[in-house]
Design a protein that fits this description.
Layout (H helix, E strand, L loop, with lengths): L2 H4 L16 E3 L5 E4 L2 E3 L4 H12 L7 H9 L7 H16 L12 E3 L4 E3 L7 H10 L2 H5 L14 H16 L13 H27 L7 H10 L4 H13 L3 H19 L5 H12 L2 H4 L116 H15 L4 E6 L6 H14 L3 E6 L10 H14 L16 H22 L2 E6 L6 H13 L5 E7 L5 H6 L1 H7 L3 E4 L5 H12 L5 H11 L3 H9 L12 H10 L3 H13 L2 E3 H8 L3 H14 L2 E3 L4 E4 L2 H10 L2 H17 L6 H13 L5 H17 L3 H16 L6 H17 L3 H18 L2 H9 L17 H13 L6 H13 L6 H18 L2 H14 L6 H18 L2 H17 L3 H17 L6 H14 L3 H17 L6 H15 L2 H12 L7 H10 L3 H11 L10 H15 L2 H11 L6 E4 L2 E6 H11 L3 H18 L2 H14 L2
Length: 1222
């Protein structure tokens, strides 16, 4: 659907003339239409800005948020002025007729930021959602979605619904919010829109089946099933359409294919509905095939065909009766949950169709892992601790009565039923502040207690000073008190020689073991509230717990707000919940009847219908707002303030001055505060503080906590108080709190130290010295408990605070930046790590300190099997500094000069000629040998192997790797041994010594696994996987890839993600999965890391798409003879392209470059092996017209295939020889 069609869609979902307001398309590249004409958005930043504003859904965005969207976490100097320029230009495009100096009506500036003020129906994503929603009534007319049928009288309604769904599907023009890249909020919204798109396509098929258009929907269903291999209802509809079309055998084949997929990927059997359909087909049940009165559609035969072809083509728009040509579908969005500001889904994402409860059982999810049984016990074996008798007395409801939440409460009680039977269940209660999440949880806790459950409750804390894993501390103690299970030490240190990631994983395992052990003693209800404030370590630990469940008597209930946070999206918890078949419970505003009931319960008087309706409209049905207004004694018909902040301000204003002062200070402390803390901050006695708080307690603003502590009755009350404070007063209170914490006892307590850093930071610039030192100490705490992300965040805050402290000496600034860089590298934030190194280097250069320059310039060159740089890129600043160091350091043997030489060789990998790199490496090696330091020599060799990683140096690199291996064995250094074994295995394979590689791989895995050298293990798996696939062991190859993916994801080894994608494509190729290979090609074509022109063209040839191969080759070309680790891989595939497309000159060039490497496998470094280079030499010779030479190489290639045990390569190559006659 183009801009003209979009402009005809109104907010109701129907079509009408243009309103004249601009319309924005985000379902693909960002486009703008004004007055029915497409408007060119010039710079990419304009598209990013417009898409970001559109995604906000009418919510103002601050300048800081917009700068982050445009430039990331570190906007350039002058970003504010540049942003204003972009806004001005965008306003000109949005309102070309607006007169100078008149107020903008579309892109407006509010007191909180910029907002794109467009009515509903002017953004295509909103139009699509409205169109799909408008067909819900038609879908409801189909009584049984598994056997779609309809009454004749309903045919017009179903016809109109299909047209609307086609119109919605036509809006997709590519990947939604494509210009926003992989920003977490964009990824989350893409997942929601992909679910919407699938729903629309699935509904079209269901309605067509109900109308008797069985054959017409087959093509679309086939494509939809290919894109949703685990979506059982889609496959059910496809089988039903085949059966009704008289193709019973094909229908049964489809259901068997689904069963195989579910068993292979999830270890599950199909749901009951699928099994029932299979039995009906086998019995030839008459009710399956015959309708007593099939309705007649008004659409012509032509208009019935594949209305959503390939789930990515443009469907037929309203009024059109001929299908448009199909367009390729964009790759499916990653299954990351989330929503935009005003969207229908929330923090924990949309519940996918496959995660809805199946009939009679728990929900299923895409990629549901097999349950992990405890060691020594099978999955179905009863627990070692006998079940205790449970108290089944009727539950006692809390007072006041729970109002308006009967359905949600019943769903939660059902979770307890299943948990009590040993079926672990998870639920997420999602809603905005004041929607009753805590109230609902309290009712559930009372019910669980009455049933004999052990209940454990924790909560995230809003204040940034909370230590990592704090939400889990109290639940672990409660489980210990209730069930006698040991409490894991959440503050344990790192064991000797233990990698931080391994220690983190061990701690997650301890937490999961504690919870599961408790569940073997008594059924457990674990409640964790306010997960939108939880730290990344807590969320990752929860994800690990959820993934490990199996046969446990456990219910896990989380609460959170509706807006997704980047921490949550990146933690992996939403995906773990979805795979576990969680229940998502969205809490929305109460309706009029429920509002009236709540007012009656709280105020003792029943409002009339009109008054209740007014109150519901003014409060949005928020139970908190209604409750506050009811308790305040404001009748619904009176002039009630429009928001809770005003209510809180009015109530606080009536309190004594001493009470107001105490509340202001307490709001800065946090939701919970102790009297001794508040007394110290206020400079009063504890008795005076309690006296001051009494009026607030009486008014319901504050409640008494445990012991001598208090808590605000609602978090939003604290937020309202805090917002009312002037910034200077807030800073004063933060400083006072920090002084109290610093001077009080227990400073080594984790929470206290984290809080200290938080309050010094919030105290402002005058306290920068205290702030950065406290942040470093808090980072030390995070490091001790393996909270890698928090350590990086705290160090970032320390660096920022340190910049405001003019008294910090250069070495201290430099050291902090290097530490931050290392923490970022461990956390997988490679860009931030490089930025920190660059800043450290800039400081050293500015100070002309050669020693500090050396430390910063060589810090990123430690031994690693994979290159850290992006392909064909170089850090020019680092290169210049290294060149300068080389000039200025004394021309004599010294460790610093040695490290500079090899670092310069490595940093020059993509920009220097091989001769220059070789000279640097030779000089560094010779100097290290003369110095005689074994450790220095080994580190130089490791870096040198990476610096000289190209085809012609393969024998030399193998010799160096063997020397490093010998040194590692002598030094008794397990991490170095794992690295040396990995290098040696990779280079043995590259040199064609497959037997030696095979012998080394188990040794690498053993040493790396035992000593937690996690970065090496994915290399092993990616080296192993292609050879398993070429040998025909597809299950082994997939298992190796899955292990690599798990390791890369768990330990955030960012540089390996592209290798995973390319390896997945290789495995799809050898397994013969054409559909998967085709979908992989588009993804590979978008990779920023590799130049895959020859790769994609060759793969198109292998699936028989010669013209697509030709188009790819003409567009992207090939990379021949590169002096990089990709040289043999790209040039070999270029030879295959030359043969397939008939390009003699390309064949001659490829042959000339490849011929020295005959007898070796084509590979991309340590991954993506393709078989003997001799295969591709034969292709190149045949393309050049020399069939005799081609035949000679081909014979040798076949001998190598047999010797290496890779029959699938031999089969493919034999077919190629036969087709081309050489």
């Amino acid at each position: 659907m183009g801009g003209d069609q979009l402009s005809s869609v109104t907010s109701s979902g129907s079509t009408s003339g243009s309103t004249g307001l601009p319309r924005v398309a985000v379902l693909g590249p960002t486009r703008l239409t004004v007055a029915g004409r497409d408007v060119r958005l010039g710079a990419p930043k304009h598209r990013i800005l417009l898409a970001t504003l559109a995604l906000a859904g009418g919510v103002p965005l601050s300048a800081d948020r917009l700068q982050a969207a445009l430039w990331g976490e570190h906007p350039p100097a002058g970003a504010t002025n540049t942003l204003q320029g972009y806004v001005a230009e965008l306003r000109r495009l949005l309102e070309p007729q607006r007169l100078p100096r008149t107020e903008a009506q579309v892109l407006r500036r509010t007191h909180t930021g910029y907002v794109l003020d467009l009515p509903p129906g002017h953004i295509d994503a909103d139009v699509a959602a409205r169109l799909v929603a408008s067909t819900a009534h038609a879908a409801a007319l189909v009584a049984d979605p598994n056997r779609p049928d309809a009454r004749p009288s309903d045919a017009p309604v179903l016809d109109e619904a299909i047209d609307r769904l086609r119109e919605a599907l036509a809006l997709w023009q590519g990947r939604p919010y494509d210009d926003l890249g992989d920003a977490p909020i964009a990824v989350a919204e893409r997942a929601r829109l992909e679910e919407l798109r699938t729903t629309a396509a699935e509904r079209v098929a269901m309605l067509q089946l109900a109308l008797g258009e069985d054959r017409d929907c087959l093509a679309g269903l086939e494509a939809l099933a290919a894109h949703n291999p685990l979506h059982e209802h889609v496959w059910l509809l496809r089988a039903l359409a085949l059966a009704r079309s008289g193709r019973q055998a094909d229908a049964l084949g489809v259901l068997r294919q689904l069963r195989r997929t579910l068993r292979r990927d999830l270890g599950l059997e199909p749901c009951a509905d699928v099994r029932d359909l299979e039995q009906d087909i086998l019995r030839q049940d008459l009710g399956l095939y015959r309708r007593d009165s099939a309705p007649q559609s008004r659409r012509s035969d032509v208009s019935r065909q594949a209305p959503y072809a390939a789930h990515g083509a443009s469907p037929v728009a309203v009024g059109r009766r001929t299908p448009p040509p199909p367009a390729p579908a964009p790759p499916p969005a990653p299954p990351v949950s989330g929503r935009m500001a005003n969207g229908p889904t929330g923090q924990y994402g949309p519940t996918p169709a496959s995660a809805r409860p199946a009939p009679g059982g728990r929900a299923t999810g895409h990629d549901l892992p097999s349950p992990h049984a405890p060691a020594g016990r099978t999955q179905n074996e009863p627990p070692a601790v006998p079940n205790l008798p449970l108290d089944v007395t009727p539950r006692h409801r809390l007072r006041p009565t729970l109002v308006g939440r009967d359905r949600e409460y019943a769903e939660l009680v059902a979770l307890l039923d299943e948990a009590g039977r040993g079926i672990p269940r998870c639920a997420a209660i999602v809603g905005e502040p004041g929607m009753g999440k805590t109230r609902l949880v309290a009712e559930l806790l009372a019910e669980a207690t009455s049933r004999g459950f052990c209940t454990a409750v924790g909560a995230g804390l809003e204040e940034a000073g909370a230590p990592p894993l704090w939400p889990l501390q109290r639940p672990m103690e409660q489980l210990h008190a209730c069930c006698g299970v040991p409490v894991p030490d959440l503050a344990a240190g790192i064991r000797a020689e233990e990698h931080p990631h391994a220690a983190q994983f061990r701690l997650w395992e301890d937490i999961a073991a504690t919870v599961r052990a408790a569940a073997r003693v008594r059924p457990v209800l674990l409640v964790l509230e306010d997960m939108h404030w939880a730290d990344a370590s807590t969320l990752r630990a929860l994800g690990h717990l959820v993934s490990a469940l199996g046969g446990d008597r456990l219910a896990v209930v989380l609460t959170g707000r509706g807006n997704p946070t980047a921490t949550l999206v990146e933690s992996g918890l939403p995906g773990a919940l979805a795979r576990a078949g969680y229940s998502r419970i969205d809490l929305h505003g109460l309706d009029t009847d429920a509002v009236a009931a709540l007012v009656t319960e709280l105020a003792g008087t029943t409002p009339d219908r009109a008054a209740a309706e007014e109150l519901m409209q003014r409060t949005g049905g928020s139970p908190l707002y209604v409750a506050e207004l009811a308790r305040a004694g404001s009748g619904p018909a009176e002039a009630i303030p429009g928001g809770l902040r005003q209510i809180v301000a009015a109530r606080v204003g009536a309190l004594p001055a001493a009470t107001v002062r105490a509340l202001h200070a307490a709001s800065v402390v946090g939701k919970d505060f102790s009297t001794d803390m508040l007394a110290s901050v206020l400079g009063e006695s504890e008795a005076a503080v309690v006296t001051a708080l009494d009026p607030a307690v009486d008014d319901g603003l504050v409640g008494a906590g445990d012991g001598e502590s208090f808590a605000f009755s609602h978090e939003v009350i604290r937020e309202a108080l805090l917002a009312a404070l002037p910034r200077a007063e807030r800073s004063t209170w933060h400083a006072a709190i920090a002084r109290t914490l610093q001077g009080g006892p227990g400073l080594r307590d984790h929470k206290r130290r984290s809080a200290l850093a938080y309050h010094w930071r919030r105290a402002g610039a005058p306290f920068a010295p205290q702030a950065w030192r406290a942040a470093v100490r808090a980072a030390d705490v995070a490091h001790e408990v393996f909270a890698i992300e928090e350590e990086a965040d705290l160090l970032a805050e320390a660096v920022e605070a340190q910049r405001r402290d003019p008294e910090v000496p250069l070495p201290a600034r430099h050291a902090l930046l290097l530490r931050w860089s290392e923490a970022c590298r461990l956390a997988g934030r490679s860009e931030q790590a490089d930025q920190a190194l660059d800043e450290a280097l800039a400081l050293a250069v500015a100070a002309d300190d050669l020693h500090l320059m050396c430390r910063a310039a060589t810090a990123g060159t430690t031994g690693s099997v994979w290159h850290g740089q992006a392909y064909r890129s170089a850090n020019r600043g680092r290169l210049a500094a290294l060149e300068k160091l080389l000039e200025r350091l004394p021309d004599q043997d010294a460790p610093e000069r040695t490290r500079v030489l090899v670092a310069l060789a490595l940093e020059s990998y993509y920009v220097a000629v091989p001769e220059r790199i070789d000279a640097l490496v030779e000089a560094a090696l010779a100097m290290a040998e003369r110095i005689g330091d074994a450790e220095l020599l080994t580190s130089v060799r490791l870096a040198a192997m990476n610096a000289r990683w190209r085809a012609d140096t393969a024998p030399w690199r193998l010799a160096q790797a063997r020397r490093v291996l010998a040194a590692a064995r002598t030094a008794d250094d397990p991490p170095l041994l794992a690295l040396a074994l990995a290098f040696t295995a990779v280079f043995e394979a590259e040199n064609g010594h497959l037997d030696r590689m095979t012998a080394l791989l188990p040794q690498v895995a053993d040493v790396a696994g035992r000593h937690h050298v996690w970065s090496v293990l994915p290399v092993v798996e990616l080296l192993r996987a292609p050879w398993l696939a070429m040998a025909g062991n597809h299950s082994g190859a997939r298992a190796a890839l899955a292990r690599a993916e798990s390791l890369v994801s768990t330990f955030r080894l960012q540089q390996m993600y592209n290798g995973l994608s390319a390896t997945r494509m290789i495995l799809d190729m050898w397994s013969g999965d054409r559909a998967a290979l085709v979908s992989q090609l588009a993804a590979l074509d978008d990779l920023p890391y590799l130049p895959p022109g020859s790769t994609v063209a060759a793969m198109w040839l292998r699936v028989g798409e010669t013209e697509r191969a030709r188009a790819t080759h003409e567009l992207r070309g090939v990379e021949l003879g590169a002096a990089t680790y990709l040289g043999t891989f790209n040039t070999s595939l270029a030879a295959e392209v030359a043969l397939g497309l008939g390009l003699p000159s390309l064949g001659r060039e490829a042959y000339a470059w490849l011929v020295p490497y005959a007898g070796r496998p084509a590979s991309a470094g340590s991954a993506m092996h393709l078989g003997p280079i001799d295969c591709f030499l034969a292709c190149a010779a045949a393309a050049a017209g020399d069939d005799v030479l081609a035949s000679t190489h081909a014979d040798q290639a076949e001998r190598l295939c047999e010797a290496w045990g890779i029959p699938l390569v031999a089969d493919w190559f034999g077919g190629l020889r036969e087709r081309h006659g050489f």
